[in-house]
Structures are given as C-alpha cells and as structure tokens.
Design goal:
Layout (H helix, E strand, L loop, with lengths): L10 E8 L2 E2 L3 E4 L10 H5 L2 E3 L2 E5 L5 E4 L1 H14 L7 H14 L10 E10 L14 E10 L10 E6 L15 H18 L3 E4 L12 E6 L2 E4 L10 H12 L3 E4 L4 H8 L5 E6 L3 E10 L2 E4 L7 H14 L10 E3 L1
Parallel strand pairs: 9-10, 9-15, 12-13
Antiparallel strand pairs: 1-2, 1-3, 1-8, 4-7, 5-6, 5-7, 6-17, 7-8, 11-12, 11-14, 14-15, 15-16
Helix pairs in contact: 5-7
The structure holds pyridoxal-5'-phosphate (PLP).
Pyridoxal-5'-phosphate binds next to helix 5 and strand 14.
Enzyme class: transferase
GO molecular function: L-isoleucine-2-oxoglutarate transaminase activity; L-leucine-2-oxoglutarate transaminase activity; L-valine-2-oxoglutarate transaminase activity
Protein name: Branched-chain-amino-acid aminotransferase
C-alpha cells in the first residue's frame, strides 16, 4: 500500500487571482505547476491548505464531510496570511467539480478520497518581504487513501515539550506551510533522541497540540481538551468528536490544563489519550515521555472510548448511521 498522500488523481482544479478578480476555474494536469521562481510563496511562505475527505457509501453515492467548515478555515487562513480573499462559493463549486470528476475512483470505506485545497501567493516580487502578494493560485488536489489503521491502531509514543512551541503563537490557527517547517526540527530530534512518534507541544506547561493534530484526554466519562484560542489549529475532527461525545452523554471540558494534571490523570487506570485529525480521525497515545521519564497512559494500549468515538464518527462518514448534524454533502 502506497504511503498516505503519495498517489494523486491525474487532474486537479485551479483558479487564479489577478487584477483584483478570480478567473474561471479549470481542470488541468495535476503533476506540474507553472510558477515564476520569484513567486511570493517560494520566498515568503504565503501558503495555506486544507485537508478534508469524500466517502463512498454502500449505494455507490459519494459524500464530502464538513466541507463548509474546511472552506471557512481556508478563508480564515488566507485572510490571516494577507493572501487574496477566497470566494467560498467558488471554492465549494471547485471542490465538488473535481470530486465529481473522480467519483468512481473514491475508495470504499475504510478508504476515502483525501481532498487538498491549496492557496499560494504567486506574484513575482522578491522585494515584497513585508507586503502581500497581489496575485495567487488556488488549486485542489485529490489523493485516494486507504485504511490508516491497516496494521491495527498501535498506540503512539508522544514527547511532552514544555520549552519550545510548534509555531509563533499568532500563527497557530492558520493551516500554513511555515508552521510545519517550524515544527520539523524538534520532531526529528524527538524521533532520534526518544523514539517518539510525535511531540505534544506544551508551551510553558500548557497542553496544546502536536505537529499536525489536536490532543484530547479521556478520563472516564469526561473528555478534556484545550479551549479554542488563536495559538493552535481549530480541528474539524476535534469539533466533530466533541459533538459526538456530547451526543453520547459524555462531559466535554474545553479548558486549559497543565502537563502536571495530564501526567496525574494519565497514570489512572482507564484513562485514554488520543490525537485527532482528518487523516486518522483518532490515534491512541500509549506513552508520554517527559524529562527523560516514560509514563504509560492507562494500560498503554488503544482504549475502548477512543475506538468507540472513532467508530461513531466513521459511521456517519460511511453512511451507516444518521447524519443528524448535516455534515455530509452529496455530490
Ligand atoms: C490539520 C491540523 C489539525 C487537525 O485538523 P482537522 O481539521 O481535524 O484535520 C490539527 N492541528 C494541526 C496543526 C493541523 O495542521
């Protein structure tokens, strides 16, 4: 099975912004871009993206999950990066058009079609280190993906990092390339030094998120996760899981909590911890590493509540249970 995100549909959809307006969208080959080497994005990182999925149901119809939430976040990212503002209706039509084009190639569950809208500043102006790009390119790639947990849901080893941070705090809620570049060095070091799979960034002791996923702690009937603020990415999966947890009668606590509280709770039998994001939905955490000591979460293995919440979300995505929140768009 090819690694996640390495197979692409041969065509993508794109639209260009210049002279203060968006072009008509067009479907073009997905294996090349024509870009001036002085393009703003290549020098000053004017780039943001989204990640969402389309699912095939048993009757063959294809649905996109929470597209409006991802479009709203793309608009927010673009605005915070001073990129041209994205017309939400236009992007929605683009996404539906390209997903429809490859509807027949949308994998059956547990696979899906991963959708990657991307927005980049294209103005050739290397003098614009402190000024926005006046032109941009918005394109959407498609990548069919398989079962994230084909080898079973193995619990991750996660390093708790209190000294650094994932990205500059005012960039936290922007889904932008520079933030991943900023976290890559620390994550690579955590892999070699601690055999950690991820870093959970906890600046000043405040439990935040990992390099590309939100963090939730499950203690009995309660879910605890950091309250939304502008320092971290507002995950659509996070919001979906919290909504489902409330539906299931769980207590949802969105509040700040410390590394000390996290480690105290993690030691209790029955506690679970998980990372949430579109690619894997919920990935269990089995071990925390903190100041060179290891702490097992619960029994150190994937827990039942994590599995139940993931299944409940998959059931909606896969059309096996009612979509009571109106999260699916039929294409
Ligand atoms: C994409 C992302 C998430 C998860 O967001 P979803 O909308 O759930 O996929 C969380 N944190 C970071 C830093 C991300 O890039």
């Amino acid at each position: 099975m090819a690694a996640f995100g390495t197979v692409f549909m041969p065509q993508m959809i794109q639209a260009r912004f210049s002279d203060n307006k968006w072009s008509e969208s067009s479907i073009v080959p997905s294996d090349k871009l024509e870009l001036h080497p002085g393009a703003h994005v290549l020098h000053y990182s004017s780039t943001c993206f989204e990640g969402l999925k389309a699912f095939r149901h048993e009757d063959g119809s294809v649905y996109i999950f929470r597209m409006d939430a991802n479009i709203a976040r793309m608009q927010q990212s673009s605005e915070l990066l001073s990129l041209p503002s994205v017309d939400g209706e236009m992007l929605k039509t683009m996404i539906i058009d390209i997903v429809r084009q490859y509807a027949d190639e949308t994998p059956l569950p547990p696979g899906s079609m991963y959708i990657r809208p991307t927005h980049i500043g294209t103005e050739a102006a290397i003098g614009k280190a402190a000024a926005p790009s006046m032109s941009s390119l918005l394109y959407t790639l498609l990548s069919p993906v398989g079962d994230y947990f084909s080898g079973g849901a193995t619990a991750l080893r996660v390093l708790l990092e209190e000294d650094g941070m994932r990205c500059a705090p005012h960039m936290g809620m922007i889904k932008s390339g520079g933030n991943y570049a900023s976290a890559l060095g620390p994550i690579s070091a955590a892999r070699t030094k601690h055999q950690a799979d991820q870093i959970l960034f906890c600046p000043g002791g405040d439990v935040q998120e990992t390099g590309a996923a939100n963090f939730i702690l499950i203690d009995g009937n309660e879910i605890i996760t950091k309250a939304l603020d502008s320092t971290f990415l507002h995950g659509v999966t996070r919001n979906s899981i919290l909504t489902i947890a409330k539906d299931l009668g769980m207590t949802v606590s969105e509040r700040n909590f410390s590394v000390t509280e996290l480690l105290e709770r993690a030691a209790k039998p029955g506690t679970e911890a998980a990372l949430s994001g579109t690619a894997a939905v919920l990935t269990p955490v089995g071990t925390f590493i903190h100041n060179d000591k290891e702490y097992q979460v619960g029994n150190g293995e994937a827990g039942p509540t994590t599995a139940r919440l993931r299944q409940a979300l998959n059931d909606i995505q896969w059309g096996k249970t009612a979509d009571t929140h109106g999260w699916l768009t039929k294409i």
